Give the backbone structure.
Amino acid sequence: MRVDIRGKAFDGQPVLGPIAFEVGVAEAVALTGPSGIGKSTLLRIIAGLDRDFDGEITGAGRLAMVFQEPTLMPWRSARDNIVLAADVSAPEADALLASVGLADKAGLFPTQLSLGQRRRVAIVRAFARRPETLLMDEPFTSLDAESSRGMQDLLRGLLSERPTRLILVTHDPRDAEALATRRIHLDGAPARVMDQSAVKN
């Protein structure tokens, strides 16, 4: 997959400058940089949610995205959130929930789940779509250290079972160290790639 952005602006104000990089199959990349630098904007462009930019995104294939807050349908059960969004059967959804320790929560609504449980549902829902590229925007925000480590372990396990290209936006170096093989650091005004380096896991 190749990201080749020449520029992105909001109301005439440049936000992203020239940004170009490639992500290989089954490679995990962490996008880092100061808060407000444009990491989430870049991820939305890659996801196809923002098309008002100068440049091209090629080779991403089938995409799935996990947002900062679990975007679950509150009027649907955990099971139905997966069935409807990923077009899988109820038994498949139940198996996915069981794989992340939520076998007994399939019939519960999001308001009946803890934040960590909702995040697990959002992650397995994304994997249920069988994406070639998984985009994650600060998926462990607001979790305590122990819960965050548990979510990192969960994600590593899912990625090992189904190799997927991962692009992870994070402000936490521990997420990059735990999940990524490469770090791409954005900075400047407008933002651009200031550094790329391998991550030692």
Q: What stands out?
A: Residues 1-62+164-201 form a domain with the Rossmann fold fold (CATH 3.40.50.300). The two ends are 23 Å apart (CA to CA). Residues 145-161 form the longest helix (17 residues). The first strand starts at residue 2 and ends at 10.
